[in-house]
Amino acid sequence: MPQTAPLPQSDPAPQPPQIVLVHIGKCGGSTLRAALESSATKVDIITHGYQPPLGPQYRYYITLRDPISRATSAFYWRRKLVLTEARQPDRFPGEAQILRYYGSLNTLAEALYCADGSPHALAQGHFRAIHHLSEDIGFYLQELLANSQPDQILGVTLQETLAADLLRLFGTTNPERIHDNRQPDPSEDRSLSPQGATNLRRFLRADFDCIKQLSTWGKIPAQAYPWL
Questions:
Q1: Is the dihedral of CA 199, 30, 142, 61 positive or negative?
Q2: What is the pTM of this model?
Q3: Nearest to 126 by CA among 147, 105, 154, 144
Q4: In what order do the strands lie in the sheet with 153-158?
């Protein structure tokens, strides 16, 4: 009996890419998430507090901010929640003691390196023990950018230009800012000494490198950050 040829198998329908929102803490991500609820943009995955998934099937929106400004906001936001208001005094082990010991970001920044320029391991460990400082821009983006193509980055929102970015990317207006911590206590000195600023910029080198790569890919206007 003659054999019949097998019917050709049709290729499975291609799956649409999955949209990932990389919500880097203290970059306006909570405000962005609230705005997206009123927009037509569909987001499949939101990563906040952990690194985003990698692969060619993903497309990314990323929240960003100047690394020094972000670190400043993060330190004093945690100090407010942990010490001033005591809403999260024990959420992360040792965080309260570290915030109380240094008191200001400048004191911590000045301690990040020894007088000879070598890393101060204890102070750097303390920096990493503070929530949002441990999950910095490099934490979220180093591996993502090393394993992705430029066309996988659909857009970047900057905390400094959030209203315009929301309108440009998602066609939505900026709602009231959530977790807005821009207004410090009048008695609070958030300034950095020259040494503190130099140390912090050195310590956050990976953050700056990620932003520069996104700028090279054309995802951030050069005028947004003069240091690019």
A1: negative
A2: 0.88
A3: 105
A4: 45-47, 18-22, 58-64, 153-158
SS3 string, 55-90, reads CCCEEEEEEECCHHHHHHHHHHHHHHHHHHCCCCCC
Q: What is the DSSP letter of 160?
A: G
Number of residues that make up the chain: 228
- Which three-class secondary structure state does DSSP give residue 19? strand
d(C-alpha 226, C-alpha 228), whole Å:
6
Nearest Cα to Cα of residue 133 among 164, 102, 176: 102
Mean pLDDT for back-to-back runs of 10 residues, the chain (228 residues): 60 82 94 84 93 97 97 96 94 96 97 97 98 97 98 96 91 66 66 97 98 96 88
8 Å CB contact between 58 and 18: yes
Q: Give the list of residues 6+ apart from residue 76 with CB closer than 8 angstroms, or none.
A: 105, 181, 184, 188, 190
Residue with tokens 């003691």: 97
In the chain, which residue ranges form alpha helices assigned H by DSSP? 29-36, 67-79, 95-102, 105-110, 121-128, 137-146, 162-170, 194-203, 205-216
- Phi, psi angles (nearest 5°) of residue 61: -110, 140
Angle separating helix axes 121-128 and 95-102, nearest 10 degrees: 120
- The whole-angstrom separation of Cα 154 and Cα 36 is 15
